[in-house]
Design goal:
It is built from 4 helices and 2 strands. With 79 residues, it is an alpha+beta fold.
Length: 79
């Protein structure tokens, strides 16, 4: 599965109904690295399952947040 994050962040249709995409990520790509030119590293890792997000948030030695607000998304950051 490949994601085009730049268009996803600005697609008004997706912004109005992101749930099918979220379900697809949880079912088929619960942890996926994707190229994203607006992040400092040029890529981001998207976690879509609760337990994976929880582990990432409680393991700063394994995961570093690069500031999601810097990515330029149109909708609020979802913790």
């Amino acid at each position: 599965m490949e994601l085009d994050l730049s268009s996803m962040m600005t697609d008004p249709t997706l912004a109005n109904n992101p749930w099918p995409v979220y379900a697809g990520l949880r079912d088929h790509a619960p942890a996926i690295a994707a190229p994203f030119s607006r992040s400092r590293s040029g890529k981001v890792v998207i976690l879509s399952r609760y337990e994976d997000v929880r582990k990432a948030l409680s393991s700063p030695e394994l995961f570093e947040a690069n500031g999601a607000n810097e990515m330029g998304q149109q909708r609020p950051v979802i913790p």
